[in-house]
Each structure stands twice: as C-alpha cells, then as structure tokens.
Amino acid sequence: MKVVILAGGFGSRLSEETELKPKPMVEIGGRPILWHIMKIYSHFGFNDFIVLTGYKSHLIKEYFLDYYARYSDLTIDMRSQSVEMHKTRTEPWTVTMLYTGANTQTGGRLFRAKKYLESEPFMLTYGDGVGNIDIAKLLDFHKASKKIVTVTAVQPKGRYGVLTMDKDGLVESFQEKPSDSAWISGGFFVMQPQIFDYLKNDDNLVLEHELDKVARDGKLQSYKHRGFWQPMDTLKDKRDLTDMWMTEHAPWAMWM
After folding, report:
1. Distance from C-alpha of 138 to C-alpha of 155, rounded to nearest angstrom
2. Structural domains of the chain ordered from first start
C-alpha cells in the first residue's frame, strides 16, 4: 500500500525556518521531519511513498537525490575523479516526488496523485506531524469499518494553563496544559479510491472541505489515538521535538 505525504505548503508560522526550505524539510535532530514521518511508516513495512511537493520543491528532490551519498562513508579521489563508497546507510524506500504547484490547496494536490495510486487503497498524512500511531492497527480498523476514509483523531495538549475560579475570582484549581477535550484530525488517514469521487483538478480545492462532505455522507470513520502526537507548527514545537529526539525520549521513533 502506498503512502502519500502532503509536503507542499509554505509553513508561514515557521517563517524563520521556511524562508529557506519547505516545512517538511525543517530538521528535528539533524533529519527533516519528512524523514521522521517516513520512518514511522517504514517501521510497519510501508516503504512506497508519494511526496506531493510545492513550495521550494527542488530542495526535497535534492535531498533524496543526494541521500545515498549524504549518509554513506566514501573516499573521493580528486585526481582520478573517482568515488569509492564504503559503509552505506540507506532505506528500503521508493520515493515518487510530484510537483503539485506552489499555491495548490490540499485537495488539488491529492487529485494530482490519482494516476499513481492505481485505483487501490492508500494512506495519506501531512508532512509536519509525528506520533506513535500503530499503523497496523489503524489499517485493520479501517478495513473493518468499510468506510471510504478513516482519520486518526487525537486530543492535543493545550498550550496554556487552565484556571478554575469561583465567582469572586479565587482560583480553585490550576491545571498546567491539560489535554483539550475536543478531538481533532491528526492526519494519518487511510483512504479508499472512492475518495476521488469527491475531488477534481482544481488548485483551490481544499481536501478538508471535501472530507466534510464525506462525513455528511456517513463514510468517514475516526480512529481514536490516545498516544503521543505532535505537529510542528511553531518554533517552540520544533524545539520541543528536537529536545525529545536529542535526549532519546522521542515517542514516535518506534524504529529505535
């Protein structure tokens, strides 16, 4: 089963980083978050990726074109213009990179991958969030639901402390960054090919709006994930994820 990754957005809230690179290429511990996402799927045996690029797409292409040399030991003989590879560090991945336009919305990007998916079920996620989702259980759940789409639902931790006060303003409890009660989309979708009945070749088509139509048709199921999940929306998110990785407390790194 193929894994599609949306990797074409601007990442404006990370502008200090994304002025120079696309958001999926912002690094956590020296590796792009895109790499971390792919490692999650690869851990469960899914190694066939379609990366939907847009903003600064050439940097994503260059990363994978240079991957073999980047993570290998080598000797360069500049006199004979030869390169000898020693220990190599590669992945069992097939990576198809599709340029889907700089300003194209998520639905338009996915539509452009249709011919590469061969009318088969596929997985889809965003190129800016990681979690310790059990992909095997997610797939089993999706198959049992018999719906067109399954979305991984998460309850993110709140960003601010919450006060409970009486009518006079006396604080009765202080809860530091509780989990929000609302379930939100954490990405990590599983989709049947019938999703393309809701899509069209339109740069302005927003996938999430079309998923609302799928939901109103009773064909969108949620898989509730109560484990770790975190997006990389801000520089603080990037620092937090990097700290987890560098201290070897990265819950999403199930392959380690």
Report:
1. 17
2. 2-246 (3.90.550.10)
